[in-house]
Amino acid sequence: MKEKINALFAGRNGLDMWNYIIVAVDVVLIAVSMLTNSYLPLCIAFLLLILFLFRALSRNLAKRQKENRFFTDAAAAIVRQHRLNGMRWKDRKTHVYKKCPACRKVLRVKRRKGPKDIHCPYCNNDFRIIIRIPGELDREEKEARKAEARAKK
Ligand SMILES: [Zn+2]
Question: pLDDT for 74-99, tens place per residue?
Fold first, then answer.
């Protein structure tokens, strides 16, 4: 039996992340259909089943993998953002996170009040940031702001 299934899927897309999601949505739709005595969710589930079969048996692997990459990229971005938020929260008292203006990568910088020259290790861009700590606006920072304004002119 297993060999037959393997032979059926040889050279075909088979199960990927989108197909797992379709199956999960189908299960929910069938449950909703049974609970509400409505045929509409069942019809949608049937259409999704056709899409599932089309994708699972598709031989256009390049296109299917491209569709799948869209999903895995989005999931990776969510995981990255979640991890960054966790780190931000964890060392909110000792570090700040700043985006490099050139390459948009997020850099972790020691949280010390005032201006700071940053060297981006990803793109070798040099830039200056001013770290503001709420409630601690003092002479040093005012001077730094003036210097920044002068630099812009
Ligand atoms: Zn950079």
Answer: 989 999 999 999 999 999 989 999 99
CA-to-CA dists, residue 45 to 16, 26, 29, 107, angstroms: 18, 5, 6, 45
Q: How many angstroms does the Cα of residue 130 sit away from the middle of ligand 1?
A: 17
Rounded distance from Cα 16 to ligand 1 centre (Å):
35
Question: Measured in angstroms, how far is the CA atom of residue 98 from the centroid of ligand 1?
Answer: 10
> What is the rounded CA–CA span in Å between residue 23 and residue 92?
41
Model confidence pLDDT, tens digit, residues 51-81:
999 999 999 999 998 988 888 899 899 999 9
Instruction: State in Å: Cα 82 to ligand 1 middle.
Output: 21
Rounded to two decimals, what is the model's pTM?
0.53
Q: What are the boundaries of each domain within the chain?
A: 1-90, 93-153
Rounded to the nearest angstrom, the distance between the alpha carbon of 119 and the centre of ligand 1 is 8
